[in-house]
Request: fold
Amino acid sequence: MQYFKRLSVVVLGMYGLTFGQAVYALGTNADEDVTNAVSMTYTVNSVIQTALADVTFKVDRKLQVEVNTTQTNWVTAIPGQTFASGNFSSIQFTVANLSNDEVGMRLALIDQGQLAISGGDPWDAPSAELSAALITIWEDTNGNGSYDVGTDDLLGNSLGILPVLSDFTFSEDETRDYYVSVDVAGTDVADLFETYTLVAAVADNATGTAVLQTDDSGNSTHGVADPAVNPNGITTLELVFADFVATVTVEDIGYDYVGDSPSAAADDSYDGQASDSSGFRTRIALGIAKFVEVLYDPISGNRYVAGVATNDPKAIPGAVLLYVIGINADSGVAATSVAIDDDIPGAFVTPGNLNAVAGIEIPATVTITINGGSVAFGMAAGVVANDQYHTQDCVGSALLSTDFFPLTAPEVDGALLGSCTVGQTGYVAYVVTVTDT
Reply:
């Protein structure tokens, strides 16, 4: 018995244990078999012995899709814009596969009328929507932010809801950009609104033919009741919806791919899909801006000598100033009956070259920033500082009138001739004299 005790001490004191390096499944591809092996060596009566054991588990599918838009406020839409004409505005959506596996993907685009957008301005529900707007969705395959015929994928166009029929295969960690454009009737007015929601859902295979309805953790997609939680099989492949929504918003709804209709419930966490929303707001983009420059004062003389800005006259009594009112048409349809009403501060300036100073030169070109862009107006077509009013209409390049406004002091008011269509500009130019007090 004593011998046995001594032998036990020796054996236990001399054995060795070695373990294989731990393997972590975080970020590991789905359906991978992960094996942890353990080996033990020990000596009995000077003989080295070895024992081996291992255990294997299968990495399950973490299914996570994400949808985001870069437009957190309303995107400007112009009456008359159409996708077919190439003159259109778009909402950009980014769809990402954050799963640990390649997945099939289905998309749906939902028109939610004039539903308010969280954080948009106005943030409350707008009262009017676009009239029967045709929507078009396309994938920006080359990532340049514009639609290129023959390169980018045109996915479809429709009125209202557009469940995209094409199937998509997203590689692990793949991201794609989709754009939604809207046709706007030329008869629409400013401040009409339309909200669009893009929904993406993971499908059961790489062809995306059917949306996954449930996972093995008791979660379900829209239109399907939650299932029971399936016990984890250590060597079988389970599915887990891992999409997470930090803040649930009213406009970011889900899509019931089973019933093929928008869901009554907002997009929430762990439903196998994701969504984001943005919208359009109509603007009548006939921009206007005003320019003023001192041309002459009795002390410094003329600002321009032989067309070059040489002197720097000041706006003292007796000075002559040039005003230019410029307009720029960005709308896709003609703006007609363009009327301008310009209040002249009659207590300070008098229309025209009051003292009939001869030889005052004006700049050949006046550049004004309108609607965020620089627009240049050529003044050399007949405007002279000795005259009072000039206009160049949107249609045509020549001066159409030298006194187009009947003077109603202290205002310059009247209508431009013709109409203004996209890309056209027009201006009104006149001079005033600073009055003596």
